[in-house]
RNA sequence: GGCCCCAUCGUCUAUCGGUUAGGACAUCAGGUUUUCAUCCUGGUAAGGGGGGUUCGACUCCCCCUGGGGUCACCA
C-alpha cells in the first residue's frame, strides 16, 4: 500500500509547537514508508481569517525543512499548488463539500436545519440549566418535505446537520487500540454552515478520501469526534484510513499547552534564538524515543526508528529547561562560520566581522540561546565599574595584585601586535611569562582577567586579550592599576 | 456534570511477567580551571491506592483515586 499522510493546519498566523510535532510525525511516517506527505490548508472558518497566514505558515515549514509532496508552496512570492489532488485550500473546494453534503441529505443521513443561532444558544442554556447534555433537539427534523422545500426556495438561511443514528461506534487507534463511543454522545453535527463553508468534520473526511490519505495522525483532542468521521466514511462508502491520535503537549501544570502559559509558536522560539534542529529534536522526543540511549538524534534517525505503536499514550509536559540544554548542545555542534551567521540577525549594532568571529568562538560553549549574543557583546564593549577588592585573588593580597598588574602590563606592552591575532600564541606567551618568573597562575591571571572583563566571572584572560586586542587591553589594565592609587 | 483518554524519578523517557527499575534535563556533591562556562565523576529522586490472575507483577484484569481532553454554524 502506498502510504500517504497529511498535515492540515488552520492558518492562524503562527505554527503551534504541538502542530509542529504533528507535522513532524506525519512527515517521519511518510518518509519511513516511502510514502507521500501533503499540506492542506483548513481555512473554513472565515471569522478566523488572518491575512498572510498561509504565506507565513509555508515560510515556517520551509525554515523547519519540512517539505511536502503536495500542497501550496511559494513561488516568486506567490502561492502556487503542487500535486494532482488540489485545490489544497479548503476555501477553494466549497463546491465539492456542497455536493457531498447534498448527497447525504438525499440519502437521508443528513438534514437541513433552519434554526437560528439565537434559538440554538437559548436551547443550550436551557439544557445546561437542567444539567442535560447540550444537544440539538432535532426540531427541524420534524419539518415536512413541503415545508423544507418552501423554506429552501425562499432562500431561508440553513445548515446541513448529520442525523446521528442510534447505536455505538467503535474505531481502532494505532496508539490506543479500540475505542467505543455511544452514538448518543454525539450531537447532530453541522456539516455545512449557513455561509456555504463546511465544518471541519465534513471537510476532513471528504478531503482525506479524495486526496488519498491513508493515515490520519493528529492530536488527541480529536478522539471524541472520530465516531462522526467514521459515520461519514461509512455513509459515503469511503474506506477508513488508519487513525493515530498523538498525546497532547502540556503546560507545566499539565493542561493543554496554551499561549497564556508561555510561548507556543515556533516563530517565537526562533525569535528567542532557538535553532530549528534543536526544536525538531526536542519536540520529536515529546512522545517517543527512538533508541532510549541518548537524546540527540538526526532527522534520519527519527525517520528510521519511527513507529506509531511506539508513541506514548500520556501527555508530555513541555520543559523549556531541557530545550535550552538541547539548544546549547546544538550550538556547540555548529561550525564557527555557521554560528557566526546564525548569530548575526540578533546583533543590535555593528560588530567588526573578525571580532565577532572571535567572540563567537569563545561564547559557543557559554550560551544556550543565539539571542544571548547581544548581552555578551555588550560585556566586551563596555566594562562595569569594579572595586579594587575584586581585583585581588582569594589566595593573594592587594599589594601583590597591584604589582602583578604592573608587571603584566609591561610584559604585554612588549608583545608584538601579531601575537594578539592568535589565541594559542597569547596563551603561550602569558604562560611562559608566569613560568619564567616563577609565579602562580592565580596571582597573575585573576587580576588580569578582572581588569579586562570587569567581572568576577568571565572568559579567560587569554580569550579576552584575543578579542580586545593590545590597545584596548592595555587601556583596561592601566585603568585597573589606577584603582589602587 | 456526561462521555472518552491517560497514570514509572520534579520533567522527558526505557523496561512489552523474573532488572540492584536504566538514560537524559533539572538538582546536589566532587574533579579539571585564575573565575565562570564547557567537560568528567558520583549522589538524591519513580512504578497513586486497593483487589485479583500468576510460582512471580511496574508490566495482564477489575475497582477507586488523580490528571487531561471533549461536549460550537472553531479547527
Please describe what this structure looks like.
It contains 18 helices and 13 strands. It has 485 residues and is of the alpha/beta class. Helix 1 (17-32) crosses helix 10 and helix 15 crosses helix 18. The chain starts with a strand and ends with a helix.
Q: Measured on Cα atoms, how large is the radius of gyration?
A: 32 Å
Q: What about the largest sheet? A: 3 strands, antiparallel
Q: For the terminal residues, how far apart are their CA atoms?
A: 84 Å
CATH topology of the largest domain: Rossmann fold
Low-pLDDT runs of 5+ residues are: none
Instruction: Give the helix proportion (percent range).
Output: 40-55%
How are the strands ordered across the major sheet?
5-6-9
> What is the CATH superfamily classification of the largest domain?
HUPs
Q: Please, how many domains?
A: 4
Note the overall shape: elongated
Q: Which CATH-level-2 architecture of the largest domain?
A: 3-Layer(aba) Sandwich
Secondary structural class = alpha/beta
Please write the CATH class name of the largest domain. Answer: Alpha Beta
Mean pLDDT over the full residue set: 95
DSSP helix count? 18
What is the strand tally?
Answer: 13
Strand content: 5-15%
Key descriptive features of the protein:
485 residues; alpha/beta; Rossmann fold; 4 domains; 3-stranded antiparallel beta sheet; 18 helices; RNA-binding
